[in-house]
Amino acid sequence: MTTTAIINLDLPGPIISRHVYGHFAEHLGRCVYGGFWVGEDAKVPNVRGIRADVVEALRALRIPNLRWPGGCFADTYHWRDGVGPREHRPRMVNSHWGDVVEDNSFGTHEFLDLCELLGAQPYVSGNVGSGSVREMAEWVEYLTRAGDSPMAALRRAHGRDKPWRVPFWGIGNEAWGCGGNMRAEHYASLARHYSTFVRDQGDNKVYRIAVGPSDGDYAWTETMMRSFDDLAADPVAPAAPFQALSLHYYTMTGSWSDKGAATRFTEDEWYVALSRASLMEEYLTRHSTVMDRYDPHRKVGLVVDEWGTWWNVEPGTNPGFLYQQNTLRDALVAAVHFDAFHRHADRVVMANIAQTINVLQAVLLTDPDSGALVRTPTYHVFEMSTGHHDAASLDVHLRDVPTVESDGRELGLVSVTASTKDDGALVSLANLDIGSPAEVVLDLRGRTAQCRGARILTAPTPASHNTPHSPSAVAPAGFDGVREHPRGLLVELPPHSYLTAELQLT
Ligand code: AHR
């Protein structure tokens, strides 16, 4: 069967925010310590304690934002413990993740230094679960206030004169779970309360992100949206205490007690993973529909600030560290998510993969012994997609898509999205079929186009992955199989592959 993708090149839709390609760094396992941060005395080349190779790799992704310090950790974190001379910082126990001692050597200044090195915008998650309104308000003041104030003075005493710009602020994390096991009504009141004190300082405008639902918890979304209805006399945002709701959804093939293995999976588990990843589309549609009732002009965003695969940890590693390998299957899970974000560009303003290094669906892995840095297959999907950042989404209509039944759903095996910027367009195509190629006609309408070049990500087996010994087993390669066709272009995608084609519009 030949699939047709009708792409209207002359009808640009909503802008795909570059922030949907965002990242997440929690104090969890080896994400911060050993991932981003090695300390100034480490043998690994570093800039003020931050791994230089990690900065280089993430800059190549044009990393738009970085969420920190959690996750569940955020609701146990007290920011004053992580400022001032390192040798005087108190220690604490990271009770969520491995029960290990956290020495607070990576704190506020180190995080903002990292963001500056990366060229990424900071997204700070404040502590609602075990913090206070005052603590959160003072953190905002410490970070963003110019001029004279007690917190600005403390920041200066710690060596930083200029305030930082912190555009994104989380009002807690997973309040329905590790953030306090709250009921929706209770958290909704707290979110209004805390948000009132997360103030814009000078021209630092804060985009407040309240805890939204997990998976398909539409009742939570309804409660949150209803909670500020009285403040929003008209649909323009300033009256709203927060500007966005978060959404968390993880892909696994099993259950929370046995999530499935990262690299050893059956054909059935291949499809279950992709079918469950495709649920993101359904969640976005349904949550957005609930939000539409209160916010028909879509001023309130959805921030998918935790998404990705969650597998059983690699044998022999600390179960509390959530370290897992990453295969071509993970890469295609990422492609399925990005396609969903592109299609919902009018509502999804940001997304953060969980997590950037050494935790869950990481884009980078570091070897604890040799220090080697490995780019995962997921990294390459991010890199191949940079052309979608801040481009206008294009409407894509698919016809004759082969399907498979998996996990009680019909999974379409070909996924295509496209965007346009200036006189170019980028088309992403994924063939989710584990064993068969897919033929796709790009039926290009509205403008004429030539293919400027294409790249493909695939490998001999669906479980192929990268290691320090074989760092490029899965890596993008040039692809010359995009041919002219009477209706546009014809692409033959190998099995289990992801492809991007750059078009020149004329
Ligand atoms: O990303 C790992 C954890 O998953 C986060 O800390 C938490 O928010 C979620 O449950």
TrEMBL record:
User: What EC class does the entry list?
Assistant: hydrolase
Domain called Alpha-L-arabinofuranosidase C-terminal: residue spans: 305-497
Would the keyword Transferase be found if you checked this record's keyword annotation?
no
Pfam families membership: Alpha-L-AF_C (PF06964), ASD1_dom (PF22848)
Q: Where are the transmembrane segments?
A: none
Question: SMART domains attached here?
Answer: Alpha-L-AF_C
Q: Does the keyword Transport apply?
A: no
Catalytic reaction(s) noted: Hydrolysis of terminal non-reducing alpha-L-arabinofuranoside residues in alpha-L-arabinosides
Q: Name one GO molecular function term.
A: alpha-L-arabinofuranosidase activity
Q: EC number(s) per UniProt?
A: 3.2.1.55
InterPro entries assigned to the protein according to its UniProt record, in alphabetical order = Alpha-L-AF_C, ASD1_cat, GH, Glyco_hydro_b
Keywords attached to this entry: Carbohydrate metabolism, Glycosidase, Hydrolase
Q: Which GO terms describe its biological process?
A: L-arabinose metabolic process; polysaccharide catabolic process
Q: Which family does it belong to?
A: Belongs to the glycosyl hydrolase 51 family.
Q: Indicate the quaternary assembly.
A: Homohexamer; trimer of dimers.
This protein is called: non-reducing end alpha-L-arabinofuranosidase
Protein's organism: Kibdelosporangium aridum
- Organism lineage: Bacteria, Bacillati, Actinomycetota, Actinomycetes, Pseudonocardiales
